[in-house]
Amino acid sequence: MGQRLPASFNHPAHAGAARPWRRQLGKVLALALVGAPLVPAGVEAQTRQTTIGTKGAQIYCFMRNNGNTHTVSWDAAYAVIKRQGDGPFKTSPQHAAVLITEAVVDNPTEFPDCGRYLGDLFKQPEGSGEAPRASGGLTRNDRYGS
Q: What is the pLDDT of residues 71-114, one digit of tens each?
């Protein structure tokens, strides 16, 4: 079957010499198997959301700083944010607005003149008690009635 070890190898005096190596290997393997995901999934998801928000903020702020209206800038930024999301559900307009706001507030030097536009992300449409939505979308009242 296998190669037999000399009887002297199994002697108690040799057993101690092999154990530290085996213990270290056992610890390394145990940590590798148990602690494999060193970065928790929540941290990775949060980092991804931050990146998506930064991309949205770059688009929104660049367009606004170059004279585009809120609606045009918002539609472009929201389209990118929706497309970048990898979950089964699309990112809501409210969440996208928060992602853009967080990116601008967290990096004011990267978006120096964008703070003045952030309020437009949260303005209520005239005569409506609802939050802003992507153009062409239905509100809950449109869809289900009051």
A: 999 999 999 999 887 778 888 999 999 999 999 999 999 999 99
Nearest to 136 by CA among 74, 81, 60: 74
Q: State the pTM of this model.
A: 0.56
**Maximum separation of any 2 CA atoms in the chain, in Å:** 92
Asked whether 140 and 129 are in contact (CB, 8 A), the reply is no
- Tell me how far apart the alpha carbons of residues 13 and 10 are, in angstroms, rounded to a whole number: 8
Bigger pLDDT: 49 vs 82: 82
Please state the three-class secondary structure of 73-92 as a single string: HHHHHHHHHHHHCCCCCCCC
At residue 47, what is the residue type? T
Distance from C-alpha of 55 to C-alpha of 93, rounded to nearest angstrom: 15
Q: Judge contact between 51 and 76, C-beta under 8 A.
A: no
DSSP structural state of residue 118: G
Tokens 């930024």 identify what position? 77
Dihedral of alpha carbons 98, 103, 105, 110, sign: negative
